[in-house]
TrEMBL record:
Keyword entries, A-Z: Acetylation, Repeat, Ubl conjugation pathway, WD repeat
Pfam families linked: F-box-like, WD40
Subunit structure: Directly interacts with SKP1 and CUL1.
InterPro entries: F-box-like_dom_sf (IPR036047), F-box_dom (IPR001810), FBXW2 (IPR042627), WD40/YVTN_repeat-like_dom_sf (IPR015943), WD40_PAC1 (IPR020472), WD40_repeat_CS (IPR019775), WD40_repeat_dom_sf (IPR036322), WD40_rpt (IPR001680)
Stored CDD domains: F-box_FBXW2
Organism (species): Haliaeetus albicilla
Protein name, UniProt field: F-box/WD repeat-containing protein 2
């Protein structure tokens, strides 16, 4: 058949074919296939494979593609990125998918970031860090050497670690370099807290002192306790210093003059922790912005209003056991919204607005586990052998890190958490620096630090 005649025939057949019903079209195709030889069947097979492939990501509007992708898990999406450049481009730009994946890993989300390709990169970074935590490869260790006697007091802030020792000295260390920035002569230190200019120390000699870093001079001495001072806190805005002592009292001092403004009584055990913090919630007893003092002994946590009212009365006393069979551990957490403390019964979280217990977390073998830090997403815990990270959303331990035989002290502050912001969610910048510090029997300080990202 001539080409011209064939084309006319083909046009005529096509018009007729399009006018048929679907059933008639199928019967026509079946008949043509039955008449075909091997060459025609091979040709038909090759073309059908191409015709049946439909790149839905390429054909669909972008909004519909994003909607479909939301139903896939991140690992499947990463595999799909390998299909083609087009798929990789579309999947990488699906912001909501990657933000959700990051949140599920405990990652902080900054909604102000506009780059559509940003969050896939963040997820890849997050999945690597979480794998390092799971495989016990996220941390590294180092030591600070310089004291010649027991190191009892530790305090960390902004990359700097302060250590107070029985060698009658306090030292300020740059954690990133391991260098000692300041070293001054003091009394024996049971508690320390510092800022850029000054150091405040609580001592086994029953006093509190304020020192100047640059000169080492004692600028104020606070005398009045009749037992060792285990905890101190202060606020420059209020010009107030508070101290908790083995004499069962909390004292409120004028920071600038050293005058004792009030002695808070009611504790029946050593006061091992005092925390001065702004309230962030409203209740019948306090408003946001009010300064609150928490003091804790072996069995109870007492809540006091401070602010400008010096002659304050206890607002509330919290405990976990009425018969005092269970003791509290001295590492108390208070962020203005929640109070958290651990005991042999578990980890207790109180709502500060109502003073109600929100939950009690009981990991396996919790009787020996102590609280170091508590956030919105993670908690940092430890026992005699390991440092633990708990995902508070599932209350499961997701990582652990071996610890050496550190110097144990039930009432002291000879171990502490470092950077704390990552407990509210990692973000790729806050997982660096100090994680944990503890004093050792050889008078050194053992540090656990974040490793840099792989």
């Amino acid at each position: 058949m001539e080409k011209k005649d064939f084309e006319a025939w083909l046009d005529n057949i096509s018009v007729t074919f399009l006018s048929l019903t679907d059933l008639q079209k199928n019967e026509t195709l079946d008949h043509l296939i039955s008449l075909s030889g091997a060459v025609q069947l091979r040709h038909l097979s090759n073309n059908l494979e191409i015709l049946l492939k439909r790149d839905f990501l390429k054909l669909l509007p972008l909004e519909l593609s994003f909607y479909l992708l939301k139903w896939l898990d991140p690992q499947t999406l990463l595999t799909c990125c390998l299909v083609s450049k087009q798929w990789n481009k579309v999947i990488s730009a699906c912001t909501e998918v990657w933000q959700t994946a990051c949140k599920n890993l405990g990652w902080q989300i900054d909604d102000s970031v506009q780059d559509p390709l940003h969050w896939k990169k963040v997820y890849l970074k997050a999945i690597l860090r979480m794998k390092q935590l799971k495989d016990h490869e996220a941390f590294e260790t180092s030591s600070l050497i310089g004291h010649s006697a027991r190191v009892y007091a530790l305090y960390y802030k902004d990359g700097l670690l302060c250590t107070g020792s029985d060698d009658l000295s306090a030292k300020l260390w740059d954690v990133s370099t391991g260098q000692c920035i300041y070293g001054i002569q003091t009394h024996t230190c049971a508690a320390v807290k510092f800022d850029e200019q000054k150091l405040v120390t609580g001592s086994f000699d029953n006093t509190v002192a304020c020192w100047e870093w640059s000169s080492g001079a004692k600028t104020q001495h606070f005398r009045g306790h009749t037992g060792a001072v285990f905890s101190v806190d202060y606020n420059d805005e209020l010009d107030i210093l508070v101290s908790g002592s083995a004499d069962f009292t909390v004292k409120v001092w004028a920071l600038s003059t050293g005058t004792c403004l009030n002695t808070l009584t009611g504790h029946t055990e050593w006061v091992t922790k005092v925390v001065l913090q702004k309230c962030k919630v409203k209740s019948l007893m306090h408003s946001p912005g009010d300064y609150i003092l928490l003091s804790a002994d072996k069995y109870e946590i007492k809540i006091w209003p401070i602010g400008r009212e010096i002659n304050c009365k206890c607002l509330k006393t919290l405990s976990v056991s009425e018969d005092r069979s269970i003791s509290l551990q001295p590492r108390l957490h208070f962020d203005g919204k929640y109070i958290v403390c651990s005991s042999a019964l578990g980890l207790y979280q109180w709502d500060f607005a109502s003073y109600d217990i929100l939950r009690v977390i009981k990991p396996p073998d919790f009787s020996n586990v102590s609280l170091l830090g508590f956030g919105e997403i993670f908690a940092l815990l430890f026992d005699n052998r390991y440092l633990y990270i708990m995902d508070l959303r599932t209350e499961k331990l997701i990582s652990r890190w071996p610890l050496p035989e550190y110097r144990k002290s039930k009432r002291g502050s000879s171990f502490l958490a470092g950077e704390m912001s990552w407990l509210n969610g990692l973000n790729g910048q806050n997982d660096m620096g100090l994680v944990f510090a503890t004093s050792m029997p050889d008078h050194s300080i053992h540090l656990v630090l974040w490793k840099e990202h792989g």
